[in-house]
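dumping this here so i dont lose it
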């Protein structure tokens, strides 16, 4: 009898412990954000803006930039921002580069220090002024 009681109590403990595994709150809420990107003082023709979780968790949100504007849903929280834009280019072999050449200076993508805070009212800041790689 004691053995059954102990096994039953142990099972309840294991199940209670398992219920705490994972993210009980679910994914973070998302909010529609919109903003602008200028490249060398003019609206960036096209590219992407990435919102990466500042804590290194979660998948990044990629939004397209067209005519200097971006819009889309991004999870709440502090985000690191990276801005990308590519133009056609040639490989050393003379063939067309399938990816293209990065137009935006690395200080705004690979080495970016840009940040924003996404809340229920949008992203602050939502305007980003970047320079070309030249």
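and the seq i came up w/
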């Amino acid at each position: 009898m004691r053995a059954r009681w102990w096994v039953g109590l142990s099972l309840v403990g294991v199940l209670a412990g398992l219920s705490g595994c994972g993210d009980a709150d679910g994914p973070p809420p998302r909010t529609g954000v919109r903003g602008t990107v200028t490249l060398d003082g003019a609206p960036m023709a096209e590219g992407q803006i990435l919102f990466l979780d500042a804590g290194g968790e979660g998948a990044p949100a990629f939004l397209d930039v067209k005519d200097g504007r971006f819009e889309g849903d991004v999870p709440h929280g502090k985000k690191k921002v990276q801005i990308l834009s590519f133009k056609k280019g040639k490989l050393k072999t003379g063939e067309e580069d399938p990816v293209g050449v990065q137009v935006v200076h690395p200080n705004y993508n690979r080495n970016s220090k840009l940040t924003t805070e996404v809340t229920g009212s949008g992203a602050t800041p939502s305007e980003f002024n970047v320079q070309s790689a030249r």
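Residues 2-19 form the longest helix (18 residues).
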